[in-house]
Structure formats: C-alpha cells, structure tokens
C-alpha cells in the first residue's frame, strides 16, 4: 500500500482538526503544536529516518510529525499522555497502518521492553517535539536506563539545547552538558522561532540531534560516582570543587581524601567544577573511586 503524504503541518489544517474536535490546549502538558512544514522536513532529515527504522515519538499531539515519521519509517510508536488527543490521532493517522499510539506518560513506559518487542532489541530512533517541562528527565531516562537508542532528534527550549552542547568555561556549562556528552554527540540542527508553533511558546526553540556514542569518550570504573561528583560540583556553582564535594549529601569522602585526589589529578586546590572537562571529571572519579 502506498502511503499518504503528510497533510497536517500548516496552520489551516491544524485549526481545522482542533475545531472539528473542540480541542483545548493544556498548558500543564506543554502543548505547542508544530505548524511549519519546513521545520518538520528538517527534523525528519536530521533524524535520517529510513524505511528500516523503528521510531519512538514522544507526545504526538494531533499527529502532525507522526504523519511525517510514518511516511518515512518502517514503524512508529507514539506515546501521548493526553487522552483527549487519542480520538484525534485515530482520525489523523487512519491512513497509516504502521503507527501504534499508546496513551501513557512517557516517564512510565518501559522503553527497553518496547524496543525489545517492536525492534528485536535493536537500537531505535527517538524523535519528538518534546514537552519542555520534562525535557531533562526524558533524555536522562533514555540514556541512564541504557535503552538501546541510536539517536535522539528533538525540539527543545533553545537554552537547553545550548546547555547540552557547550564545554567548560561558558555560563551554560553544567551537569546536563556533561551527562549528554558522556552518552552522545550533540549537534544543533536548527533554531526555531515561536511562530512555528500553535500556540506560540514564550521561549525560543531548537532542534538538537544526539547521536549515541558507540563507546563512551571516557572510561570510568564507577559511572554512578562520576555523576555524583558532577552533580556535587555544579550544585553550588560559586564554590570550589573541593568544597562542593565536601558538602554534598550522598558523597562521604573525608576532606583530606578529596584534597589529595584533586592534587593527584593535577588540579589547583581552588579550581571550580565549571572549569573541568569530561575527561578531567572522569580522572577525578577514578582517583576518588580507588580511595574509597
Ligand atoms: N508532536 C506534536 C507537534 O509537534 O505538533 C506535539 C508536541 S507538544 C510540544 C508536546 C506533546 O507531548 C503534547 O501532545 C503533550 O500532550 C504531550 N505530553 C506531555 N507530557 C507528556 C508525557 N509525560 N508523556 C507523553 N506525552 C506527553
């Protein structure tokens, strides 16, 4: 069966669907629907969707991007929390027989199990115009639970996209930058202005692609400790690294052990966490891990 070309993705078609179902936007679900075909094309291109791919879409809304994904991919699974969108999706996706819609909170879905059942455990692609209020838990959840993911191509708040891709010495650098870069290679595909959405968000947006590393760029003996150290270092940005680590609940190293580890790594005693690269954090995690 030849697939129908996507027909949502412009303001007129979106308004027609919304009016047909008397849909009202729910702020609490971060609902800002895409109404720009150029942006949609760009996302699909950046995600490099092929007929072999199984794609997980988070938050399909009225199914605009879902149509594009269904057109390009082998199979799509879309997880939508808002039950009032389910009858709309049944309608807008009725021409596509390769889409499954799950009415669930994405944070409660066992994505590893889904990838196992739907894609034989092979890496999946995640594509979404994310609900911004849960961007970090969604992305960190995908990485930390070791879901087999090849790439994540998502619309996020512009400021969050910047944070994901910067390095040390910049104001946006923090725990999110390090976590994302530990697991993936970030690449900002496009900046997207508010007028590409309905309703318009108050913030600028950007599409970012995170391509999972085949192998992490640094080797650590204890991943959990690495992330505890990173979190402790950025918990109170103005503190020195040594003070940040000493005062962080969950890390129980003696003051002397921390100072000795910082010296062994060759860092200045007054260094701040925001000056350290991922490699340097990994070195510190390995030295401190052995001191335990
Ligand atoms: N993909 C659509 C588009 O681009 O037009 C809608 C994107 S809108 C920014 C975010 C979507 O995520 C909404 O449909 C919203 O209802 C849904 N959503 C919000 N929280 C969610 C959650 N926890 N789990 C699944 N979907 C969620």
UniProtKB/TrEMBL annotation:
Top EC category: transferase
Record domain Ribosomal RNA adenine methylase transferase N-terminal: where: 39-214
Entry superkingdom: Bacteria
Keyword Electron transport on entry: no
Protein location: Cytoplasm
Cross-referenced Gene3D superfamilies: Ribosomal RNA adenine dimethylase-like, domain 2, Vaccinia Virus protein VP39
GO molecular function: 16S rRNA (adenine(1518)-N(6)/adenine(1519)-N(6))-dimethyltransferase activity; RNA binding
EC nos: 2.1.1.182
Xref: InterPro entries: KsgA/Erm (IPR001737), rRNA_Ade_diMease-like_C (IPR023165), rRNA_Ade_Mease_Trfase_CS (IPR020596), rRNA_Ade_methylase_Trfase_N (IPR020598), rRNA_adenine_dimethylase (IPR011530), SAM-dependent_MTases_sf (IPR029063)
Record's catalysed reaction(s): adenosine(1518)/adenosine(1519) in 16S rRNA + 4 S-adenosyl-L-methionine = N(6)-dimethyladenosine(1518)/N(6)-dimethyladenosine(1519) in 16S rRNA + 4 S-adenosyl-L-homocysteine + 4 H(+)
Keyword hit for rRNA processing: yes
GO cellular component, one term: cytosol
Pfam families: RrnaAD
Keywords annotated in UniProt: Cytoplasm, Methyltransferase, RNA-binding, rRNA processing, S-adenosyl-L-methionine, Transferase
Residues the record lists as binding S-adenosyl-L-methionine: 32, 34, 59, 80, 105, 129
Function according to Swiss-Prot or TrEMBL: Specifically dimethylates two adjacent adenosines (A1518 and A1519) in the loop of a conserved hairpin near the 3'-end of 16S rRNA in the 30S particle. May play a critical role in biogenesis of 30S subunits.
Alphabetized NCBIfam families for the sequence: ksgA
Family statement drawn from the similarity comment of this UniProt entry: Belongs to the class I-like SAM-binding methyltransferase superfamily. rRNA adenine N(6)-methyltransferase family. RsmA subfamily.
Annotated protein name in UniProt: Ribosomal RNA small subunit methyltransferase A
Organism: Blautia faecicola
Gene name, Swiss-Prot/TrEMBL: rsmA
